[in-house]
Design brief:
Strand content: 25-35%
Helix content: 10-25%
Largest sheet: 5 strands, mixed
CATH architecture: Roll
Number of strands: 5
Shape: globular
CATH topology: Ubiquitin-like (UB roll)
Order of helices and strands: EEHHEEE
CATH class: Alpha Beta
Number of domains: 1
Structural class: alpha+beta
Pfam family, one: ThiS
InterPro entries: Beta-grasp_dom_sf (IPR012675), Mopterin_synth/thiamin_S_b (IPR016155), ThiS/MoaD-like (IPR003749)
Protein name: MoaD/ThiS family protein
CATH superfamily: Beta-grasp domain
């Protein structure tokens, strides 16, 4: 299981939890599991989120591995100018 810490704006889609656990081996599997287990997260994930794994922002590599001891954060993308 991978523990995913949720950015404050995403917590309302996961019953107010700061962190949730999902079964996944890659960033792509993790995002799919989050959408499946927490359907409210599907729209924000599809709109675009940033994923941090062990302090590195994963821009587009859905095959990036995640492990049970990885530090993972899911953040809403900031927009504006």
């Amino acid at each position: 299981m991978v523990e995913v810490h949720l950015w404050s704006g995403l917590r309302r889609f996961a019953e107010g939890r700061e962190a949730v656990e999902v079964e996944a081996a890659t960033v792509g599997q993790m995002l799919d599991a989050l959408k499946r287990d927490y359907p409210g997260l599907a729209e924000p994930i599809e709109a675009g989120v940033s994923v941090s794994v062990d302090g590195r922002i994963i821009a587009s590599d859905l095959t990036e591995p995640v492990a049970s001891d990885s530090e993972v954060y899911l953040m809403q993308r900031l927009r504006g100018g």
